[in-house]
């Protein structure tokens, strides 16, 4: 699976958009981009995933560049409850490992009042 | 229940003791995963089950670690002769499907925090 690079930490003011970048320059054509987040003392929570088109759901938007070498997770109106570690993961389905996701260290997002 | 349930939430063991951690996945979920998360690190994959079959155990750090899911539902992660380096949060996750690209949403439990003294 392709390796990802994320900034270790970011700050965002409450009510503003949080834009979390992820580089995955070695991504291959059949690898998906997944985003998860982990609030302190909880298990990771799925946010969104995509292949090459931009995606939006009730939690966030995922913007993938045309060459697919990077992506941005957008939380349109960050709240204090969005303070968490955000993980960007790329993977292809492996028939023996199913959807095993390789988490890196992620980006620690702090939303401030 | 509505989500993935793990027990115990906290476990303190003396070095050399055996421990067993339980995971109740979401009913009907085919896939089940175990992850290990050390302090300040992201979760690391341990093993994967599709129903009762253990298809991937490449992440288990040693032969002291053993996982089973005999009836394709509840799973147990067993650690024998615990060592201090086994101290971590052990996360269980399940997903509905076993195959098909792009549908890999995993639902995680809150984890079992193991401290080995």
Annotate the secondary structure layout.
The complex is a heterodimer of chains A (113) and B (117).
Chain A: E1 9-13, E2 18-23, E3 32-38, E4 45-50, E5 55-56, E6 61-64, E7 70-75, E8 84-91, E9 107-112
Parallel strand pairs in A: 1-9
Antiparallel strand pairs in A: 2-7, 3-4, 3-8, 5-6, 6-7, 8-9
Chain B: E1 5-7, E2 10-13, E3 19-24, E4 31-37, E5 44-50, E6 53-56, E7 65-68, E8 75-79, E9 88-95, E10 107-108, E11 112-116
Parallel strand pairs in B: 2-11
Antiparallel strand pairs in B: 1-3, 3-8, 4-5, 4-9, 5-6, 7-8, 9-10, 9-11
Notes on the protein architecture:
The complex is a heterodimer of chains A (113) and B (117). Chain A has 113 residues and is mainly beta. Helices cover 0% and strands 44% of the residues of chain A. In chain A, β3 (32-38) and β4 (45-50) form a beta hairpin. The mean pLDDT of chain A is 91. With 117 residues, chain B is mainly beta. In chain B, strands 2, 4, 5, 6, 9, 10 and 11 form a 7-stranded mixed sheet that branches. Chain B has a 4-stranded antiparallel sheet with strand order 1-3-8-7, with no helix packed on it. In chain B, β5 (44-50) and β6 (53-56) form a beta hairpin. Classes of the chains: A mainly beta (113), B mainly beta (117). Chain A binds chain B through residues 30, 32, 34, 36, 41-46, 49, 51, 85, 87, 91-106, and chain B through 4, 31, 33, 35, 41-45, 48, 50, 55-56, 58-59, 91, 93, 95, 98-102, 104-111.
């Amino acid at each position: 699976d392709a390796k990802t690079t994320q900034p270790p930490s970011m700050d965002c003011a409450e009510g503003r958009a949080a834009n979390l970048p992820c580089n995955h320059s070695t991504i291959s054509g059949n690898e998906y981009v997944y985003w998860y987040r982990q609030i302190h003392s909880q298990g990771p929570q799925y946010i969104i995933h995509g292949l090459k088109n931009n995606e939006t759901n009730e939690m966030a938007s995922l913007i993938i560049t045309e060459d697919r070498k990077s992506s941005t997770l957008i939380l349109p109106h960050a709240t204090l409850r969005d303070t968490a570690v955000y993980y960007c993961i790329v993977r292809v389905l492996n028939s023996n490992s199913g959807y095993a996701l390789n988490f890196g260290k992620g980006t620690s997002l702090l939303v401030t009042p | 229940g509505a989500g993935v349930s793990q027990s115990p939430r906290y476990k303190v063991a003396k070095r050399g003791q055996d421990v067993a951690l339980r995971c109740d996945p979401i009913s009907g979920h085919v896939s089940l995963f175990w992850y290990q998360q050390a302090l300040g690190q992201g979760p690391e994959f341990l093993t994967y089950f599709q129903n009762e079959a253990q298809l991937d155990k490449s992440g288990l750090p040693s032969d002291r670690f053993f996982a089973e899911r005999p009836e394709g539902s509840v799973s147990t992660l067993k650690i024998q002769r615990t060592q201090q380096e086994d101290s971590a949060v052990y996360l269980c996750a399940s997903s509905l499907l076993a195959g098909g690209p792009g549908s890999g949403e995993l639902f995680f439990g809150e984890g079992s925090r193991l401290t080995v003294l």
